[in-house]
């Protein structure tokens, strides 16, 4: 544990410099430390929610004393004249000193982009195992978080079984298509998904705001010729575009496209979002790509429209590149889930012979991530 001499009060008490257990040296502002206190008057013991607002913290908050005692950091704040205890390990995991700006289009550490080479390492879980074992569920959800999709095998062959998949981690998101939708050939379909035509890899419902963040497709019958499912990592496609054409990448992140759906009576959905979406710090956070639902793009200036369309075309070519796709054919009782903000899905055309019946539904990624994080937190506490 760092010695007392390794803490320094700086900037007239408005910050400290400290050597932390992970070997890093970090500076922390006094107001940040006070706002992130974990004492019982700042955070509710039961749920850890903050009990005070920033307005309750004096504007001229500063540190008048800092020392280690029994392995914990004790800081005295003025003008409150309060001493609050901090865990140095928590500070080590939440340091912000030295954060450097990152290249536009960076991805979070728990994201792994991929192409066709992933075929041998698709995240696969057994329905029975993930239903009974928290460890098996954790491993499968981890794969979905890391790669943006995953398969389940060995599920029941019964209508509505896809709801049991969603219940593993969260809840169904109901839309105008209902709690679930049938994917099988129809006469006069309201959506091309209900035909035997092949479909370009796409994200679903880009005309919604927010889009459904997860999609589940569950197989009940599949004796038709063809109809293989395909998935493409939209984040990897965006990375390839950025590597080949930085200006094109920038145009698709800077300008919004328009998406629209009005294929059912009483429904007219519209959204305006970039095809490649970045957070303010440049993190790659979303892909919206669906040729069937793209409306007239009007937010791009005349001077940039030709280059925008060239980038749009190239992104589509990358997505269509067979070296990008992972392909598989579902058997009855098998299903797969995709992160609809990242992974594009498609299917190859299939013939009228035999039968092909899948059911689909939407869910929300926050439920999946919450379930996974709660299991991981429990594992850490048990270690």
UniProtKB/TrEMBL annotation:
Q: Which GO terms describe its biological process?
A: carnitine biosynthetic process
Oxidoreductase among keywords:
yes
**Which Gene3D superfamilies does this chain map to?**
3.30.2020.30, Clavaminate synthase-like
Task: Give the matching InterPro entries.
Answer: AlphaKG_dependent_hydroxylases, GBBH-like, GBBH-like_N_sf, TauD-like_sf, TauD/TfdA-like
- Its Enzyme Commission number(s) read 1.14.11.1
NCBIfam families, A to Z: carnitine_bodg
The family classification in the record reads: Belongs to the gamma-BBH/TMLD family.
Q: What is this protein called?
A: Gamma-butyrobetaine dioxygenase
Please report the organism this UniProt entry assigns to the protein.
Phyllobacterium myrsinacearum
